[in-house]
Structure formats: structure tokens, C-alpha cells
Amino acid sequence: MIGPVTPIDLRSDTVTRPDEEMRRAMASAEVGDDVLDHDPTMAALEERVAGLLGVEAALWVPSGSMGNLIALFLHLDRGDRFLAPLGAHVLDAELGTAAWLAGGMPHALPVLTAPAVLAAAGGESPYYGLRTTLLCLENTHNSSGGTVTSADDHAALVAAARSTGLAVHLDGARLWNASVALGVPPATLAAGVDTVQVCLSKGLGAPVGSVVAGSASFVTEARRVRKMLGGGVRQGGVLAAAGLVALDRIDRLAADHSNAYQLASGLRALGWEVDEPATNIVLATVPDLEKTLLSLREIGVAASPMSGKVRFVTHGDVDSSDVAEVLRRLREDV
Ligand SMILES: *Cc1c(COP(=O)(O)O)cnc(C)c1O
């Protein structure tokens, strides 16, 4: 290969950088003091997201992890058991805060189906029985490769949880991707949940920010917990402005999905063992994960480890020609 290789970063859809339009919106945002009373741009963002999700109210938070934590903190009493799919972000990727700070006792479901929820929740238990009070959903499911829960499956899971008295929280970090992949509104995929968290800083490309949403009374309490966790920001409109621009870009995610298909089929043609992507995440099974990640780096392709596999994530800062270039480098590298 001649000359320096331009790195192509497929580690995550969080690596996107705000473009000119987004930076301009941030620079000119109308602001207030969101801790004292309200910042108008924050308020506009929260209202817009609540509308998209079909819930009463929403609250901007600095990260998806904080959004999930606030929801779990308010749902769980100390020692309550909560159910989540195996490999869920709340179980594996949030430093144990569900237990450490929210006081919950996790129970992972290897297969997430309505009967599995019913069986795990159990029925009435004697006074010395464990209390199971919450079901945590994740759509798309990151660690299983950006897989999508359909509207019907979502409704069945929520109904199962309800029938046994569980509250429901949805980790919708990539709910936008699920919505675009299925061609249904985000609100349909959040129907019936008590609380939902969505990220603005993944495929939508904001530099920072998530939103946690639910009833108006949930958001009133969530605002207190956010402050307690150090997540109250003052002139947050500067950040919310980026979120508003990000929300204009939901449809763009379709390009990430088609780039993921292109990458998966190209890898397969090169002999790789690759799961069929449902959204913007491609998982490849390799004999030696560390060695593969290193040799990818050597040809200027950054990927990340996930569930014992190589994870490639497509996003707004890579296009179809970048994917073609990744495949070209791999072809020439043999
Ligand atoms: C990224 C992600 C989050 C939140 O991540 P932050 O980095 O804290 O914003 C939550 N859940 C899932 C499934 C995610 O992929």
C-alpha cells in the first residue's frame, strides 16, 4: 500500500463528529438556566422527544447510562429483582449501577419471550419470597448485533409484564434504528412502557445527550434524581440544540443500515462468518478476536470486541464508498 492509510472508524456510531450545521445550531441556541427553572431549547427538545415517543413528558440527560439509571432508580426498591435480556446494556455495560445505585437484583433472560417473562416473574409469592418488579427491554439489542424487536413482539412482552404486575422500562438507545428498520413510528415501539430512554449521540450524531421519558410525574422525580447524580446542566440549550438537529436526521439511519448490509455481504464474500445485520451493527465470528482486531488496525480499520465477536458499526461519518474501501483493504491484505 502506498502512502498513509486513512483510518476508517467502525468501532461505534458514537464516534461521529458534529458537522457545521449542528455546530451552528449550538452556537446560536437560545438558552436559560435549566437547573433554576428552564432552558427554552432544552424544553423544546424534551417536548419534541415526548411527542415522538408518545409519552407525557421527557427529560434531557447527559448520557444513556444516566437515563437508564434514573429510570431504574425510580422503579426499584432496594433488593427488588428486575428482568432484562441476557447481554443487556443495563446488565453488562453500566458498571453495575442497576445494583450499586438503583438497588436492583438483576435476572438475565437468555431468551426474551412473553412466556419467559411470565415464568421468571412468578406469581404471588409468600412474604419471604423475592419481589420481581420490573422488566427492562432493549430495542435494538446492542450485544446481539443490533437486532430488532417488532411492534407485535414488543406488545406481547409488555402485556406479559403487565399481567404479572411488572413495570416496564425500555432502553431505546437505538430505538430510532429499530423504527427505521421496521418502518413504524418510535411511539409504536415504546407503546405501553412506563419509561423509555433514547440516545441522541449514537446514530443521530449529537456530540452528547440522551432523553429519558414517561409520565409527567415520573419526569418530575427524574429531574430530582438527575440533579442528585450531577446531571443538571445550566445553559443546556447549547447541547439540546445539537439534539434538535440530530432528530431531523432519523431517516438518514436507513443509509447506515444499507451500508451494514453491504459490509456484511462483502465480508461473507471474503469468507468471513457474519451474522445478517438487522440495523447498523455487523457481528463477525473469528477464531482469534484479539488478533483480528489488531490486523484490522494495521490496515486502518477500527472495530471493537462485542459478545466474543468483532463488531463493526456503520454511522453518519462513513458512507458506502468507505465500506467498499474497507472491503478492498481486506481483499488486498491476504
Ligand atoms: C450506548 C448505549 C446506552 C447508553 O450509553 P451512554 O454511552 O451512556 O450514552 C444504553 N443502552 C444501550 C443499548 C447502548 O447501546
Automatic annotation (TrEMBL):
Any GO MF annotation of the entry: L-allo-threonine aldolase activity
PTM-bearing positions, type N6-(pyridoxal phosphate)lysine: 202
Cofactors, names only: pyridoxal 5'-phosphate
Keyword Lyase set for record: yes
Short name of one Pfam family: Beta_elim_lyase
NCBIfam families with a match to the protein in the record: GntG_guanitoxin (NF041359)
Family: Belongs to the threonine aldolase family.
Protein name as annotated: L-threonine aldolase
